[in-house]
Amino acid sequence: MRDEIARRPTKLWRNLNAKIASIPMVLTAVFVFAGGTAWTVLYSFTNSKLLPRLNFIGLTQYERLWETPRWHVAIENLLVYGSLSLVFQLVIGFLLAALLDQKIRFEDTFRTIFLYPFALSFIVTGLVWQWLLNPDYGVQSVVRSLGWESFSFDPLYNSEIVIYGILIAALWQGTGLVMCLMLAGLRGIDEDIWKAARVDGIPMWKTYLFIIIPMMRPVFITTLVIIASGIVRVYDLVVAQTSGGPGIASEVPAKYVYDYMFFAQNLGQGFAASTMMLLSVMIVVVPWAYLEFGRRRHG
Length: 299
Prior knowledge:
It is flat, with a radius of gyration of 24 Å. The longest helix is centred in the N-terminal third of the chain and has 32 residues, at 69-100. It is an all-alpha fold. Helix 14 runs antiparallel to helix 15 (267-297). Helices cover 72% and strands 0% of the residues.
């Protein structure tokens, strides 16, 4: 016990230079991120318009928020876009990684092709797919010029399926990154595991499903966090492709927040919407973090 107490000061001064160097980052995180979050939540209970002011009105902004049809459309679109984006990016990215992991020819070329869209900004991606999905000179026009006159494919101009047009662009851009993360995880698997599976006569799909994927759990968790963060803050693609249209059919929470804060000049409503976005993230992240790190701490 005495030896442990005597060692504590030594541990405190260990890596002192690194701890001093991290002070600016810690202060930035505390005062900018945590402070900004607290400031946003505080002013969401006010009737701030063009400029923030401490005139508290209780939960009125939240009541108005959930009574607004535009917010309901935004939440519905986020749920549809988020669930499908999460599933398809994981599945397609893993399948592509599994194919490239077979040591195919021109692997570097294929990997570059698949990853290239991620190097583009969301605005560029949105504009490219706005052109590709345009019925006058995009995919529909090309197919009809080949003889299929009845072919119809104009998701960005159909309020019922416009969110799926945005989903196509998101998958095109984000799947390459997921593929690279999965490929890195697959390359970290010991070759002896594959040899043992082949010796035991285990089919390849069972090896992936029951052995490889459970071993890649940290990779999947990292990928899920990256995809989820992009889903919650999706904005650029929507603005570039549809600007929220037709009407409000492709509205998303991030665009709702931006419009109310900078166009409608209603800071209180924008702060309330952004606080609800933060709350939705915390509802998912906090239980997961507790289970993940709690399980690791208890062995």
